[in-house]
Design a protein that fits this description.
Structural class: alpha+beta
Distance between the termini: 15 Å
Oligomer: single chain
Number of helices: 37
Largest sheet: 7 strands, mixed
Number of strands: 39
Helix content: 40-55%
Radius of gyration: 42 Å
Length: about 1050
RNA sequence: GGGUCUGUAGCUCAGGUUGGUUAGAGCGCUCGCCUGAUAAGCGGGAGGUCCCUGGUUCGAGUCCAGGCAGGCCCA
């Protein structure tokens, strides 16, 4: 006979058992094998870096990264899930620097690049085991054995192939541009790295006089030559020595003012803000008039025609400063651009370590940021400083060494992404972003203002830039494969075997195809974001291998990462793919929010506020975390990860699911229900069965539609609602069907239905909470079923079962039940006390106003009323009562008002109306004549005694609480049964145990017990009921009911099973 | 400074369906009920300036404009 075991209550133990099952039976592999011939659903793994510990924030995208592949697999799609590891880049180098205790590039060179790079290679795997352990424990199914690794030669070769394509098509160029640069690390930083290091700082904000030396070539003419200055503004005094020009705002109006014998020119809108003390406005000057003026810079270090003039620019800030901005092309992006446009000389008196050179003797050898006070002091002495305050703003620091970054013009290699800008925008539009504003806003905006991709890094651990330069003719070639390397190499044997990393690859010299001279590799490595962004191609070692695999897995149907990847991986995937393959490499992208700590601050290792996922996994389990992340709010919402929030779903959803199954297991085991033996014809299904099966289909539809639209919340809400309906309505209302003896068709119908509901529910939730789904499935599965729920097909919607009329009826029924409870509450009558009737007014236009006998029976049981009457109006249950209106009676009748009110109250409504037929009536109260007018009486609707009214929306329910003797006795019987059941529980009997019941009772309980002996015996499974306590009982206890006492004795008795 | 998201009950939040009676849920609190599946369930109650200001409208939590606060991305 079939036995259903209860689930293990402890989620941890339960899940660990499931993990063992999956491992032993290789379910993940089988799920892939089983779908191999199916349509492809392509997922790309965004590679994590394993040199840091996984923290809770990493879990958020992972949950969706697992949900959709599982869902699609169950639908029959083949979802290969190749893992991946991101392994290159500055973060890895910095970890190693820390380990070996070095702090600069010269120190690395001294340590030995080879040793250094090898340590990087090891460091990358430091937490690999930890990542794998977490991924496995959370039930994230991904193929880690065949994961792509960005540092392998094969991967690098594919990246080289891409780069060579780009080079040959003119996408790679060497440029001289301003980059954020760390003077201590000696390299430019990627925008990603810069973003990590912004800090609020106070910098000096100064305005400086720059005297006009010539107005030749400008429309503005000086009125007071020699004492007129442009008032300029900067927050980086140290850049003043590099000044080569001034910028004014296009379309702004400027003004000349007189103050203390000098004339100053600045933006009109900023006069009051920028000037100290009184001033006299001399005249307004349109911006065009200032263009071309020559001025005296604070430090004239250049002798160049083009320098020290006024130019117009778009970027000038008109909210702070003076509206005249000092420009140093060497130290600012805007400045550099202006310099390019206007043909300004490029001048930088600063060396690579960030110190002034001899070109600026005042501060030679001083680190630039430390030169600020020296320069300010100097300007002050020379009378050039107008104002000096502090200015608070965000400034980038090197996120590792804390050195302030400099915007620094330097040589580096770029990808001309701007050349494909329109195509990028077009391809981006084809991607379905969830939420859509990522595509339209955040990334879209970035693409509109696209800049070329700064590709090269002056570092060691990364994909080496595959460009070789000829020492003779300066020709540059790109090497697109190892074969090409061997072909051009001087030492072919070396080229055949060399590891493609620095420093090894640097030893490979090529022969110039033009002049035959030696070619050497450029010293750079590339931005690690190019590596991961190339995974669409490089994960397959394409085009050198796996051409088929590449073809069938491009583009991806689905990717998902956190929002910080917008300009990281999402962008680099899109950019490389657009250039190489011409199209977007993914179609759907869910962008998750960030993991926040209990205070709403982003979790990050550097802030030290990360939660160790194990602390939660080991207490609540993987399913609980998965459900919390899926169901609590939309994926892109940031989530606070307080413990209290996370454990919510454990009770609300997972425990309800477990209890629902346990209920089935308890009774199905008692009755030996076996879905393979017990069948039932559809006609035998009850109304509840039809209803819950309809709801099952509707839920399946909602979940499927939700997931198909990448709308997770709609799916989880549908599932939570359905589970509630199963547990709190279907089972609650069906309990008596399961308790009945024997195996009647109705009981089989109930079992069959509940079984079907459970099996399908478990399949529906399997992609979300794979562990509990598996644990229940293992108990439910028939011998012919697949060995895991994850090998089963996802439930299909069967529209035939959807019965919206019935669902409407049942919804109404549940509202009525709810109102009934409310009415009982108000009347203070227990549910155990049977009542004669409830009367429900259903507004005729309300849907489903016709309720079938079947559902009415449910309400009757639920509310314990003998009848439920549905009426179109409750009018007849009210009667009118005349009520005196003291507001009018009082002023008119004075002392007689009270007596007149008495008279009104003493009449019936009908009498009062009749008396008032003519508009007023003269009566005598207290022996005096009094006139009562129409307005003195209002008619109020009053409920008859014993009725309680409750209403909600269009529904009104009247509960008749009048009791007669029969009802009273029925109430007593239920009370007695209830007490005996409690005693059974207290005695520790099993629910199937039969008992002998003895009692000694006073009147009237004794008579009640005698009269209802059969009913009570049946309810409490008593084979014998004896009006005496003679003999031994396992439990004997006195109970009091409404002041009367009865003593019960209970003992188990043997009873043949199965009848 | 730019972009973007968020702001609703003590807490966490309703992809807040097209503007429309009394703004909801869960948790927590509180009172009561029910229990022959339940770490449960049901009902009542307390708890709201829907961030602010202005506009459009017969009517705004919802639409528009401008602010404020916070998060994130970028300068």
């Amino acid at each position: 006979m079939k036995r259903y075991e209860k689930l293990i209550k402890d989620p941890i133990a339960r899940e660990e058992k499931v993990l063992i099952l999956w491992e032993n039976k290789e379910i993940f592999r089988k799920s892939l094998d089983a779908t191999k011939g199916g349509p492809r659903y392509v997922f790309y793994e965004g590679p994590p870096t394993a040199n840091g510990r996984p923290h809770f924030g990493h879990l958020m995208p992972r949950v969706y990264k697992d949900l959709f592949p599982r869902y699609k697999t169950m639908q029959g799609f083949y979802v290969a899930r190749k893992g991946g590891w991101d392994t290159h880049g500055l973060p890895v180098e910095l970890e190693v620097e820390k380990e070996i205790g070095v702090n600069s590039k010269p120190e690395i060179e001294a340590y030995g690049v080879e040793r250094f790079v090898n340590r990087c290679k090891e460091s990358v795997w430091r937490y690999k085991a930890e990542w794998e352990r977490m991924i496995e424990r959370m039930g994230f199914w991904i193929d880690l054995e065949n994961a792509y690794i960005t540092y392998t030669d094969d991967y690098i070769e594919s990246v080289w192939w891409e780069l060579a394509q780009m080079f040959r098509r003119g996408f790679l160029y060497q440029g001289h541009k301003v980059l954020p640069y760390c003077p201590r690390c000696g390299t430019g930083l990627s925008s990603h790295e810069v973003a990590q290091g912004y800090r609020k700082v106070q910098d000096p904000s100064i305005s400086v006089r720059m005297r006009i030396v010539s107005d030749e070539g400008a429309r503005y003419k000086q009125e007071r030559p020699g004492s007129t200055s442009l008032l300029t503004w900067t927050t980086t005094p140290w850049t003043l020595p590099a000044n080569v020009g001034l910028a004014i705002a296009v379309k702004a109006t400027y003004a000349e003012v007189e103050q203390n014998d000098e004339r100053l020119i600045l933006a009109k809108a900023l006069l009051d803000q920028a000037l100290e003390g009184d001033y006299r406005l001399v005249c307004e000057i349109p911006w065009e008039d200032l263009v071309g003026l020559s001025y005296e810079p604070p430090y004239r270090l250049l002798d160049d025609e083009r320098a020290y003039r006024v130019h117009a620019a778009e970027f000038v800030n008109m909210e702070e400063g003076t509206g005249i901005v000092h420009t140093a092309p060497a130290f600012g992006e805007d400045d550099y651009q202006l310099g390019q446009e206007e043909g300004l000389p490029f001048f930088s008196p600063v060396d690579v370590a960030g110190a002034f050179t001899e070109e600026f003797p005042l501060c030679a050898g001083t680190f630039v940021k430390e030169a600020d006070p020296v320069i300010i002091e100097d300007l002050k002495k020379r009378g050039l400083l107008y104002q000096h305050t502090l200015y608070e703003h965000d400034y980038p620091f090197c996120w590792r060494c804390g050195t302030p970054l400099l915007y620094y013009a330097m040589d580096s290699w770029y990808i001309r992404t701007t050349a494909v800008k329109d195509q990028l925008i077009k391809n981006n539009r084809r991607i379905n972003w969830y939420p859509s504003h990522v595509g339209e806003g955040r990334l879209g905006d970035f693409l509109l203002n696209l800049k070329d991709w700064a590709l090269s890094r002056d570092r060691y651990w990364g994909t080496p830039l595959n460009l070789w330069t000829c020492e003779g003719c300066e020709k540059v070639i790109a090497v697109g494969s190892r074969a090409e390397l061997v072909e051009s190499a001087r030492d072919k044997e070396l080229a055949r075997t060399v590891e493609l990393h620095r420093p090894y690859i640097d030893r490979v010299a090529l022969r110039c195809p033009e002049c035959g001279e030696t070619m050497r590799r450029v010293p750079n490595v590339i931005d690690a974001w190019f590596d991961s962004g190339s995974m669409h191609t490089a994960q397959w070692h394409y085009p050198f291998e796996n051409k088929e695999k590449f073809k069938e897995s491009f583009p991806a149907d689905f990717i998902c990462e956190a929002t910080d990847q917008t300009r990281g991986w999402f962008y680099t995937l899109l950019a490389t793919s657009t250039i190489i393959h011409g199209e977007a490499p993914f179609r759907n992208c869910i962008v998750t929010g960030l993991g926040l700590d209990a205070d709403g601050i982003k979790m990050s290792t550097s802030k030290g506020n990360v939660i160790d996922p194990w602390d939660l996994i080991n207490v609540y389990g993987a399913d609980c975390l998965r459900w919390y992340l899926c169901a609590s709010s939309a994926p892109w919402r940031s989530k606070r990860l307080g413990e209290a929030d996370v454990k919510g779903p454990l009770y609300r959803f997972l425990d309800t699911l477990r209890n629902t199954y346990d209920f089935f297991a308890l009774y199905a085991s008692i009755d030996g229900f076996d879905p393979e033996d017990h069948r039932v014809e559809e006609e035998r299904l009850g109304i509840l069965d039809h209803w819950i099966l309809s709801r099952l289909s509707a839920t399946t539809k909602a979940v499927t539609e939700g997931l198909d639209n990448y709308d997770v919340i709609t799916a989880t809400e549908a599932l939570e609602g359905f589970l509630d309906e199963v547990s709190n309505w279907y089972i609650r209302s069906s309990r008596r069907r399961f308790w009945k003896g024997g195996m009647e068709p109705d009981k089989i119908a109930a079992y069959t239905t509940l079984y079907q509901v459970l099996v399908n529910l478990v399949k529906l939730v399997a992609p979300f909470v794979p562990f509990i789904a598996e644990a229940i499935y293992q108990q439910l599965r028939k011998s012919s079923d697949p060995e895991s729920v994850h090998l089963y097909g996802y439930p299909q919607v069967d529209e035939v079962w959807i019965n919206t009329t019935l669902e409407g009826e049942m919804a109404l029924t549940r509202s009525i039940a709810s109102l009934g409870h409310q009415a009982r509450n108000q009347a203070q009558v227990k549910v155990r006390q049977p009542l004669s009737r409830a009367i429900v007014e259903v507004a005729s236009e309300a849907e489903g106003c016709v309720l079938s006998e079947g559902v009415l029976a449910l309400v009757k049981t639920e509310l314990n009323v003998a009848a439920v009457e549905i009426v179109s109006t409750l009018q007849p249950y009210f009667h009118e009562v005349p009520a005196p209106n003291l507001r009018t009676l009082g002023p008119r009748l004075g002392p007689l008002a009270q007596q007149a009110a008495e008279w009104i109250r003493s009449k019936t409504a009908a009498d009062a109306r009749e008396a008032l037929a003519s508009g007023s009536v003269k009566v005598e109260v207290d022996g005096k004549p009094v006139e009562i007018k129409k307005e003195d009486i209002s008619f109020q609707a009053v409920l008859s005694n014993g009725f309680v009214l409750v209403e909600e929306g269009a529904l009104r329910l009247l509960l008749d609480t009048n009791l007669d003797e029969t009802l009273r006795e029925k109430g007593l019987v239920r009370e007695l049964v209830h007490r005996i059941q409690l005693l059974r529980k207290e005695a520790g009997f099993e629910v199937t145990d039969r008992i002998v019941l003895g009692y000694r009772a006073d009147s009237p309980l004794g008579e009640v017990l005698v009269r209802n002996r059969e009913t009570i015996a049946a309810e409490v499974l008593a084979l014998e009921v004896k009006p005496t306590l003679a003999g031994d009982y396992e439990l004997q206890q006195k109970v009091k009911i409404e002041g009367n006492a009865v003593v019960f004795g209970l003992s188990r008795t043997t009873y043949p099973r199965g009848t």
